[in-house]
Structures are given as C-alpha cells and as structure tokens.
Amino acid sequence: MCLILFGYKVSKPYPLILAANRDEFYQRPTAAMDFWHTPPDILAGKDLEQGGTWFGVHQNGTFAALTNYRDPDSIRPDAPSRGEIIVDFLASGTPPEPHFNEFTQKAGAYNGFNLLFGNKSTLFWYSNLKNQIQPISPGIHGLSNRFLDSPWPKVTSGKTALQALVRDTVTLEGLFEILADQSVPHDHQLPQTGVTREWERILSPIFIQSDTYGTRSSTVMLMDQGGSLTMVERTYSPENKGIFTDCHFFLPA
Q1: For the purposes of burial, counting CB atoms within 10 Å of the CB of 84, is it exposed (0-12), middle (13-18) or buried (19 or more)?
Q2: CATH fold of 3-251, please?
Q3: Which end of the chain has fewer CB atoms within 10 angstroms, the N or the C?
C-alpha cells in the first residue's frame, strides 16, 4: 500500500478505523480481496506476479498492512518480495509481537518497508530502516512511503479529513471519499524522495492517476468493540476510469 490512514481508540463504536490505498503499475497482475485456499483462513488481495499481498487479515482477527519506503537509490533488484512478509505472518499463527520480534533478525534482507500490524487488542508499527517495533498510541495516524506520521501533504490532509469524520459520523462511504481525494499540493509542499519533480507531483495526491501508474484499490476496515471486522475493498479499473467494484466481508470476533 502507499497510504494508510487510521484512527486508534478515538471512536467509541470503532476502536480501530483504517482506510488505505494501494498504488501500483497498471500492468502488474492483481487478484481482488478474497479468502485464500493456500495458506487457508487468510483474507487478502494477491499480487499475481510475486504471490504476496499488501494487506491481509486472518480469520482469527490478526492483520497486517505494508507500505514501501521510497528511496530509488537504495533498491536492490535481488531482494525478496516484501509481499511475502504479511503472508508468512498470517500463516504462522504466532501472536503479532513475538512473530515480528523474531522477524527483525532477517528484515534487513528486504528493500525498505513499513508494517502496521496487530489484532483486536494490540497495534504496532515497524520499519526495517529503524528496526524497532513501536506500539501505536491512541490517535489519528498516517503512514505513506516514509515513516509513521511523516508530514507529507497526503498524510497531513488525510489525517485532517479522518479526524473530521470521527468527530461527525464514521461511515464506509465517508472513508472512501477521503481515499478518493485527487488534490495535488503545491510544489513547495512536495517531499524530495529521489524521483523527478514530475513524479513527485503524480505521487502526491491521496488517489493517484497517470498513464501507467495509480491507485489500484482502496480498502476500509472497521473494528467494532467486540473485535469483529468489517472489510470492504474497492477495486478500480484503469481501463475504465470511474468504474469500480466492491468486495464486502465480515469477520466475527
């Protein structure tokens, strides 16, 4: 994923509110969110090129979401696929913190990434560039292709919009509206991440569109007080702009 906005313990009906966009090249083959046969009990979309995922949930309520760390100069072409990290975690059956405490020993083999992971009672952030697992504090947070709450324009505006929604009424459509924002910030607000200024502009909105690369899907997850999860993935068709399909799932606690 390239943007994860989430509210943790800021809403009485929903202790966890998550809204995220996955951005990818249009030509990369992808399967929409569904339950996997192998490994079993995993609900996730699938990268059909490498077999991994960017966001997944297990039937037991554990979940994880991943964003890449943007630094073109540090990319190693021979590094393993980061999408396998979530699959290995969800398939392991190990509680979140012990699993990733062990994983930190080999995390340096991957290109830079961030992970948001947890279950109905815990939530953590981890980046292999900092190599330290950090518990998430209650509040409104954003994670893009730098670090947790790095003040990129899309992170800042997304957090502001999510805060306003929490003060009003949290709805699925309200969250999808936030994820659909195509506003482009002024050049002086753009981060410098090692890509050209033109690409910084293309990558700067919450919802990205270009000729070759853009937002492929939006995912919303709501966790209620009992720990049940409502999941909706909205998949976009780059060939038919404005056309999308929704997949709805409910995982009882």
Answers
A1: middle
A2: Penicillin V Acylase; Chain A (3.60.60)
A3: C
Q: In a 3-state reduction of DSSP, which class is residue 3?
A: strand
Predicted structure pTM score:
0.96
- For the chain, domain boundaries: 3-251
pLDDT per residue rounded down to tens, the chain (253 residues): 899 999 999 999 999 999 999 999 999 999 999 999 999 999 999 999 999 999 999 999 999 999 999 999 999 999 999 999 999 999 999 999 999 999 999 999 999 999 999 999 999 999 999 999 999 999 999 999 999 999 999 999 999 999 999 999 999 999 999 999 999 999 999 999 999 999 999 999 999 999 999 999 999 999 999 999 999 999 997 776 666 889 999 999 8
Q: How far apart are CA 13 and CA 6, in angstroms?
A: 14
C-beta of residue 149 within 8 angstroms of C-beta of residue 142: yes
Rounded Cα gap, residues 151 and 226, in angstroms = 33
User: Which parts of the chain fold into alpha helices (H)?
Assistant: 83-92, 96-103, 153-167, 172-179, 197-203
Which residues are registered as beta bridge partners of 207?
none
Sheet of 30-35, strand order:
30-35, 42-47, 55-58, 63-68, 113-118, 123-127, 134-135
